[in-house]
């Protein structure tokens, strides 16, 4: 909630029960001072506004702050995450939150991906939805092509990649503007997306686990790039 309020023009109206608005008086005051209408509602009305079984007692109605792919790329982000056809809202939201933590400038929901404003996806971002450029892009291949044309190196994450993440990191290949592309756990990335990327990258497995889930793999990849970029800049 505080992340949304910190982004001017995002919150349209704030709803809460009298008890909750009193409990979060600073939040309510911040909204009022910004010219945002704050409305008291009862428990039944609040439940109708939310999708959760046990709502926290306060709800914000917000604008959808989409950014076009050309505009996002024109800002020169050093790190971008693209979610290709990922339909699980919890996974997508967690990857967006991780991308924000790793310093990414944009997250692209490519092709038939989950709606980034799906309730579960929004909650999984824990506010990071308001910290990065959120793009609902065309098909994943077009996203990859546009990213490469904008000067980003595109890395496709796949368990069958011909490049090893540690090897790329050791060679210095991650110290460049990068878009990581992640596919769904069930289907991975299409052959067309894999072919369009600069490298197909696997996360090395040192134990006996067969694979990592999407969110864990994305965290490893994004933080490897974040560290390489930080070391390069220093």
TrEMBL record:
Q: Which InterPro entries match?
A: Alpha/beta_knot_MTases (IPR029028), Ribosomal_eL30-like_sf (IPR029064), rRNA_MeTrfase_TrmH (IPR004441), SpoU_MeTrfase (IPR001537), SpoU_subst-bd (IPR013123), tRNA_m1G_MTases_N (IPR029026)
Note the coiled coil stretches, chain numbering: none
One GO term under biological process is: methylation
Domain RNA 2-O ribose methyltransferase substrate binding: start-end pairs: 2-68
Which Gene Ontology cellular component annotation is one that this UniProt entry carries? Answer: cytosol
The protein's UniProt keywords, in alphabetical order, are:
Methyltransferase, Transferase
The UniProt entry, under Pfam families, shows:
SpoU_methylase, SpoU_sub_bind
* Tagged with keyword Methyltransferase: yes
Entry's Gene Ontology molecular function annotations: RNA binding; RNA methyltransferase activity
Q: Which domain of life is it from?
A: Bacteria
The record's annotation in PANTHER family points to: 23S RRNA (GUANOSINE-2'-O-)-METHYLTRANSFERASE RLMB, TRNA_RRNA METHYLTRANSFERASE
Q: Member of which family?
A: Belongs to the class IV-like SAM-binding methyltransferase superfamily. RNA methyltransferase TrmH family.
What name does the UniProt record give this protein?
Answer: TrmH family RNA methyltransferase
Species the sequence originates in: Catenuloplanes niger
